[in-house]
């Protein structure tokens, strides 16, 4: 089954994003959470890696474990940061050898301490070039690319950002997974703009449950995602872990229900290697493949 085919059936296909833990104990805990998330019949799992490719080997190890546990397809993030074309191809070959099915192809953020992206000599400048490389040399891999409902922080305007997305799609992307957002209106506007621009591949919203307001502010600040005033006020009213968790999960559940009612083909959850919030917000909802 191709990556696009994951979104061709009735219902809402879901997937979960993980990141590579730093310790063996962390990997064991991650795998326990993956097993708990299997009750929602996800279509696949993705895994990021550290800035500049610092944890690429761990990412592949995590994906191999997840695939062994779940028997599901797995996807590795891949960025252009700090890598030559030869090194990118070497990683793609290692991923293929380990049974990775899909790639989330990204330009990548500048390394810590840098304010702008710098091309590695012999490397790639843009995500659409990475998509083209994968299509040319590793065409068996499914490709997801990133979309930005509130516009990429480096784009001068929404049109330029959309033009860049169209280049990635035209280079051979299978699906678009969006950056996190907290107001569904931003996603619907983005989806309409994509359709108007002739983008006709599945557009999958990315949702991050807010269970810690300070952490959410930091993450949202990094990607320029706005936190609605009402949500911010309610979470700021009480900083107890119980209150933060309840309010954040309820907001994500309301987001999910509204997205389901508005016909999204799937939802990608940024679960931060935990399962409690996802289990709480998805409990009882009708998703693809569930009764």
From TrEMBL:
Pathway: One-carbon metabolism; tetrahydrofolate interconversion; Amino-acid biosynthesis; L-methionine biosynthesis via de novo pathway. GO terms for biological process: methionine biosynthetic process; tetrahydrofolate interconversion. The keyword Signal does not apply. Belongs to the methylenetetrahydrofolate reductase family. It comes from Rhodopirellula sallentina SM41. InterPro entries: FAD-linked_oxidoreductase-like (IPR029041), Mehydrof_redctse-like (IPR003171), MTHF_reductase_bac (IPR004620). NCBIfam families: fadh2. It catalyses: (6S)-5-methyl-5,6,7,8-tetrahydrofolate + NAD(+) = (6R)-5,10-methylene-5,6,7,8-tetrahydrofolate + NADH + H(+). Pfam families: MTHFR. The keyword rRNA processing does not apply. Its EC number is 1.5.1.54. Keywords: Amino-acid biosynthesis, FAD, Flavoprotein, Methionine biosynthesis, NAD, Oxidoreductase. GO terms for cellular component: cytosol. This is Methylenetetrahydrofolate reductase. GO terms for molecular function: FAD binding; methylenetetrahydrofolate reductase (NADH) activity. Signal peptide: none annotated. Its cofactor is FAD.
């Amino acid at each position: 089954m191709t990556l696009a085919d994951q979104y061709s059936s009735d219902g809402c296909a879901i997937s979960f994003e993980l990141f590579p833990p730093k310790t063996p104990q962390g990997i064991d805990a991650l795998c326990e959470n993956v097993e708990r998330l299997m009750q929602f019949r996800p279509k696949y799992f993705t895994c990021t890696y550290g800035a500049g490719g610092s944890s690429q080997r761990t990412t592949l190890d995590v994906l191999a474990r997840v695939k062994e546990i779940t028997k599901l397809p797995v996807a590795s993030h891949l960025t252009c940061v700090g890598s030559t074309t030869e090194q990118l191809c070497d990683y793609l070959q290692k991923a293929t050898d380990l049974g990775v099915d899909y790639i989330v192809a990204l330009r990548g953020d500048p390394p810590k301490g840098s304010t702008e992206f710098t091309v590695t000599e012999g490397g790639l400048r843009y995500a659409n070039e990475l998509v083209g490389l994968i299509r040319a040399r590793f065409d068996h891999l499914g490709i997801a690319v990133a979309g930005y409902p509130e516009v990429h922080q480096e784009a001068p305007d929404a049109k330029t950002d959309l033009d860049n997305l169209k280049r990635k799609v035209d280079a051979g992307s299978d699906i678009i997974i969006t950056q996190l957002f907290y107001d569904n209106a931003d996603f619907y506007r983005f989806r309409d703009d994509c359709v108007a621009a002739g983008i006709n591949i599945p557009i999958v919203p990315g949702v991050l449950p807010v269970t810690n307001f300070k952490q959410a502010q930091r993450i949202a600040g990094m990607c320029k995602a706005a936190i609605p005033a009402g949500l911010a006020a309610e979470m700021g009213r009480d900083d107890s872990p119980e209150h933060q968790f309840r309010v954040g999960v309820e907001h994500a559940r309301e987001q999910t229900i509204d997205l389901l009612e508005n016909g999204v083909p799937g939802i990608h959850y940024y679960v931060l290697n935990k399962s409690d919030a996802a289990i709480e917000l998805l409990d009882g909802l009708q998703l693809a493949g569930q009764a």
